[in-house]
Input
Amino acid sequence: MHLGKSYRLREFIIWTRRKIYVLLALGLAPVLLYQVAGLQWLTLPLSVVSLLGTATTFVVGFKNVQTYTRTVEAQKIWMSIVSASRYWGVITHNYVGDAERSTALVQRHLAWLTALRYQLREARPWETVDSRPNAEYRKQYVIPERAESLEAALSRYLPPQEIPALMRTDDKAAQLLAMQGNAARQLLDEGAVTASEYAEFNSRIRELLDLQGQAERIKNFPYPRQYAIINTLFVRSFCVALPFGLTGQFAQIGQDIGGFMHGQMAWLAVPFSVIISWIYTSLEQVGESTENPFEGSANDVPISRLSTMIERDLKQMAGSADLPALPATVIVL
Output
C-alpha cells in the first residue's frame, strides 16, 4: 500500500498515459471529419452528451464507493487479525509454562500468517495487478510473496519435517490452524494447561478461522461483473460521444467571433474532450485498482507489513532480539 503523503501528478499521468493516447485519437477524429473532410453534420447535441455524462457519473461513483468499501472491509479484517494475533501471543506465554512449547505455538501462528498472505496473493482472472499500467508501476516496489517461495518462507517458522506434508494440502492456512488445535489438545492431555485455558485456545483458533474466511470471501468473490462491465461501457460510450458534442458547440462559437480563430474554434474540442474524458477514465481506473485489496497492487491492504508487525510484537513478548525489519519504502505490501 502507498503510505506516502500522496501520488504525484506525474506518476498519475504516466500510469494513465495509454488511455490519454486513445482519448487524443478519439478527440481528433470528429474534428478532422468536421474541419478537413467537411462532414459538418457529424455532430451531436451537447444536451445529449450531457445526459450521457450524468448517467456515467452516477455509475462510476457507485462503483468507486463499492470498491472502496471492499478495501475498508479488508483493512478491518486484517486489523482484527493483528489484535487476535497479539492476544494469541499473550495467552500462549501466560498459559503454557514451557518456553519451548509456547515458542512452537507462536512460530506456528507466524506460519499461519505467512500461508494466509501467500494464499491471498494468488492470482485470480479478474484481478488487474498484471495489467500493463500496474505492472509498470510495480517496478517501484517488491511483492514479498512473489520474491520468495512459500516453502522458503515457512522454513523460518516450522520444523523441516512438517513442511512437505503441509505443501501437499490445498488450504495450508487452515491446516496450520488444525495443527494448532492438535497442539492445544496435547497440552490439555498432558496437564500443561487447564480445561478453561484449553477452551480459550480453541476460541482463539475459531476466531482466526472466521477471520481467514472473511478475507478469503473478499479474495475469491470479485466486484459483481455485471456492474463492472456496465461501468466500462458507460465510460467508453461517453468518451466516444463527448468530442462530437464539443466539436459542434465550439464550431458554433467560432462563427460568432472574428480574427484568426474565426471558423477554427472546433479544434479546441480536442484538448477539452481529452481533459474531461480523462477524468472519467481515471476514476474508472482508480476504482478498478481498488477493487481487489489483496492482489499486490500499490493500493492494496499492506498485509505483508502487518504480518511483519505481528511477528515483531510476538517476538518482543517472548524477549527475542531477532526481529524482522519493517519495510522502509513508501509503498509497502
User: Anything to note?
Assistant: The chain has a mean pLDDT of 90. DSSP finds 13 helices and no strands in the chain.
